[in-house]
Amino acid sequence: MKNKTYSLKLKSHSNKKRLLEALEELKNIYPFKLKAEDIYIEKTKEKGSYLVYIGKVEKQKKRKLIKTLFISLMLIFVIILTLIIANRIVENQNKEKLAEQEIENQNIKKIEAERALKEELKIKKEQYEEILNAEYYPVYPILEELYKCLIGKTTIENISISNDTFFVEVRTENCVKVLRKFEESNNFTLVKMNKTTIVDNNEIVTFSGKYQNSKDYPIDTLSIEEKIRFYDEKIKEAKTNNENEKDISISTYIEKIKYVLKTNLCKEEYIQTKGNLKDIEVECFFTASSTNLLNFIKQIQEIDNPRFWIKEIRINNKANSIQVIVSFASGIEVKADELELLEGSKISIEPNDLSKLFNKSSAIAKTNTEIEKKQDLNISKRIEQIKLLYVGKATINNEIKVVVKDEQMNSLYKLIQVTDEIEENCFFIENEKMIAKINNKYYEVIK
To answer: What pairing do the DSSP bridges indicate for beta strands 426-430 and 411-417?
Structure first.
């Protein structure tokens, strides 16, 4: 049997039928008898056309097997390559997602950190403003700003300053010009004018309003962290100052006030403490020239430790001198343990020892008697020009006291009513006149 190849047109669709059809066709053109296993059929590109191999069956089968195997390997390779590429794509996508998630987490952390810093900044600012609000404005800068507004031949008759609120009565040639100066000032707000009267072609006018001044805040260009550090330093400084001031005794505090008064030639009339153990105020009344008064205010508020906060100041400009009442917010408090210590350290003193306080020499007693007689004789001559207003009577600690008012200084006095003058502040009637004795000065009381 020779090896030969024929191109046949076969119509069968199944391999088995196609093989039988090919054998029938070959009977007509091939001289030898053939069996099914002697031929091999291979499809061509032409529809219905097949190559029929005789004597090359094993070789063609092997060839087809190799071709099939190659195609299978190529298919497997393509699948593996596709899987690898797909895996790489998935890995890259996962990496991108992880990177995006990391960036998102970092952004969230950054936003949370910024929010926390802003909240901390807000708290620090509130603490700082609480400290500022607890402090009083220095008086001297307010007087400096008033000087810029009170133009021309304007003089102060009376003035009172309570922290940022002022009330000033002036004598001026033109109250409108003064009001305009207040309006132009950046340091005064809510200014009101009340024209009261005209004296010698001059207007007596009162102005009231509020003082405002720029407070020390961090500049906007600073970062949040820098602003927080700014507030921390200011708060720490304020706390340190407050602690240092609380360690100072009230007697030392008053001693410094008296020293500055004396240094500036201010005549002290009285000085006293007010308020409670946790918020002691020191009030002093003195007279001075305008220059000495201003030197006192400037010098007393330049002291760093302790700081002398002026809670309120009232100035009455008299012909001969200026009368001043100043209330200092000392910030000094007596602590509970100090009270216990003081109570525990009481020393019992025998009556015989205490009686020495009342023993006077005959010369001293004689001198005091002569002084008292002299005071009684000259009391009418020594009554001050200022007259006090009778307010009425009040019961204080089960004791009836007469209440009188100094309208010029806006001060109330509660006095013990006596029939004969005593050394302490008191109220009595002399020659059918009501007399108030206050700090060894005598004032006629009118109703």
So the answer is: parallel
Q: Find all residues with CB under 8 Å of 5, minimum gap 6, and list them.
A: 51, 52, 53, 54, 56
- Look up residue 200 and give its amino acid: D
User: In the chain, how many H helices and how many E strands?
Assistant: 10, 17
Q: What is the largest CA-CA distance in the chain?
A: 181
197 is written with which tokens?
Answer: 């009267």
The three-class DSSP label of residue 266 is: coil
Residue length, the chain? Answer: 447
HSE, side-chain direction, 13 A CA sphere, residue 152 = 15
Q: Show the DSSP H helices in 284-356 as ranges.
A: 290-300, 336-344, 351-354
* Residuewise pLDDT in 10s, the chain (447 residues): 567 788 888 888 888 888 888 888 888 888 777 777 778 788 888 888 888 887 655 555 666 677 788 888 899 999 999 999 999 999 888 888 888 888 988 899 888 888 898 898 889 888 888 877 777 888 999 999 999 898 888 889 899 999 889 999 998 888 889 999 999 998 899 999 987 678 778 888 999 999 987 677 788 888 888 888 888 888 888 777 776 666 778 888 899 999 999 999 999 988 988 877 667 889 999 999 989 999 999 999 888 778 898 999 999 988 777 899 999 988 777 655 444 433 344 455 556 665 555 555 444 444 444 444 444 445 555 677 778 888 888 777 778 888 888 877 767 788 888 888 887 889 998 888 899 998 888 889 988
From 321, 325, 313, 438, select the one nearest 387 (Cα to Cα). 438
How many angstroms separate the CA atoms of 4 and 22, rounded? Answer: 14
306 prior amide bond cis, ω within 30: yes
CB 286 within 8 A of CB 322: no
Helical segments of 135-268, H only: 139-149, 175-184, 224-246, 250-263
d(CA 442, CA 404): 13
Q: What is the token pair recorded at 353?
A: 């020892």
